Amino acid sequence: MNRKNLLTSFEEQFGYEGERVFFSPGRINLIGEHTDYNGGKVFPCAITMGTYGVVKPRQDKEVHAFSGNFPAVGTVIFSIDDLEYDKADNWTNYVKGMIKFIQEQTGKLSNGFDLYIYGTIPNGASLSSSASLELLTGVIVRDLFDLSISQLELVKLGMRTENEFLGLNSGILDQFAIGMAKKGNAMLLDTNTLEYEQIPLDLPHHKIVIMNSMTRRELVDSEYNTRRKQCEDALDQLKTVVEIDSLGELSEEEFENHKQVISDKVLVKRAKHAVYESARTERAGEALKRNDLKTFGQYMNDSHVSLHEDYEVTVKETDLLVRLAWKQTGTVGARMTGGGFGGCCIAIVENDQVDEFINKVGSAFEIEIGHGAEFYIAETEDGTKEWVSHD
Ligand code: GAF
C-alpha cells in the first residue's frame, strides 16, 4: 500500500490534507478454533493484509467516515454524543461501537474526526476484517486524543463492540491477535487467563498459503451464537459433577470420564471439540517451539477433522480445499481458519511446491465448485499502530 495514495484519497474526499496514517492487520488462526469463548487455547498471528486509516481531528463533535472499499455507501456522518447502532450506517457501526465504549471508559471525547479507510482484507473471508477495523478505530482515537488506555484494554473493548454493539457473541481471539501481535511470531494465548507467549514463526523452507473459498453461508452469526450456547449448556451439565468454570479447564481424560452427564449427543460433540482442540493447540505450540513442523501439521489436520465432524462449522467448499491441500506433495498440514461456514483455509506448504499447490488446488476446486478460489501467501505483521513516515 502506498502512503501517498492514501493521503491523496483522504484529500479528494475531504478537501484538505489528512494528518496521520494508521494500520491494523488481519489475522489467521494457525490452530485453536472455537476455543476462545470456552476458556481454551488459541494460536493466531497477524498478517500483512489489513486496514489503513487516514485521519484528521475536527473542530466539532462529528465523525465523517468514508471507506474506499464501499464508495457507494458514501460519507457516513455521526456525532460522538449519539452512538447508537444503525444498520443504515453500514461498516461504520464498528467505528461507532469502539468510540462508544472508549468514551465509557475514559470519559467524553471533546472532538470528532475525519476518517478515510481502505482495507486489503477480503470481507466475510474469516480473516477478521471487522476486528481489524475495531482495533484501528481504537488506536486512532487513543493516539489522536492522547487517552490513557492500553492496547489490551482496546482489545477488550473490540470484543465488547462485537458482543454488545453488533450482537456476535465472539471470544477474544481476533481482537487479541490483531492488537497484540509481533511480526515474525504467532501467539499461544490462554483465553482463560489472557497469559500468552510469542512463539517465533520461523519457517525458512515453507510458506503459509491462505486459500479463500470465496463462499460465505447465510446466518453465520446466528450459527456462531448457537455453537457458543451449546458449549455453555454442555458446561452447565458438566458442572454438576466437576468443579470447572470453562470447558478449557478440562483435560481430554477428564472429559471422557464425565461426558455421560451431558444429556444431548450434539452437545457432547460440541464440548468434545472444545476440549480436544484446546489440548491440541497447546501441543501444537510445543511442537512449533521444537521446530517439529510435521507434528504441527498433523495437529492442523486433526483440528479440521474435529471442526468438520464434531463442531460442524465446515462447508463443502472449505472441506474440499483442505482435502485437495492434503493430497498435494509438500503440504505439511491444512485446515479451515476462523469462525467457519465458508471463508478461508490455510495450508503450510514447502517453498518449491507452492506454485504447483496453487495451480492444482485452484483448478480442481474450480472444476468441482463452479467458481474459483483465491490464494494469498501469509506474512506476519505487528499489531495495530500508527504508520510513522520516515521521509
Ligand atoms: C470468529 C470469532 F470472532 C472468534 O472469537 C473465534 O471464536 C473464531 O471465530 C473461531 O475460533 O473469528
TrEMBL record:
Q: Which residues bind substrate?
A: 33-36, 224
GHMP kinase N-terminal domain: from which residue to which, for each copy?
93-180
Signal peptide segment: none
- Site described as Transition state stabilizer, positions? 27
Where it mainly occurs, coarsely classed, is cytoplasm
Keywords for the protein's UniProt record, in alphabetical order: ATP-binding, Carbohydrate metabolism, Cytoplasm, Galactose metabolism, Kinase, Magnesium, Metal-binding, Nucleotide-binding, Transferase
What's its EC?
Answer: 2.7.1.6
Catalytic site positions: 174 (proton acceptor)
Domain annotation GHMP kinase C-terminal: ranges: 286-365
Residues noted as binding Mg(2+) in the record, renumbered to the chain: 130, 162
Q: Name one GO molecular function term.
A: ATP binding
Known SUPFAM superfamilies for this protein? GHMP Kinase, C-terminal domain (SSF55060), Ribosomal protein S5 domain 2-like (SSF54211)
Describe the reaction catalysed, as an equation: alpha-D-galactose + ATP = alpha-D-galactose 1-phosphate + ADP + H(+)
Q: In which pathway does it act?
A: Carbohydrate metabolism; galactose metabolism
Protein family per UniProt: Belongs to the GHMP kinase family. GalK subfamily.
Quote the protein name from its UniProt record. Galactokinase
Show the taxonomic lineage. Bacteria, Bacillati, Bacillota, Bacilli, Lactobacillales
Q: What gene, per UniProt, encodes this protein?
A: galK
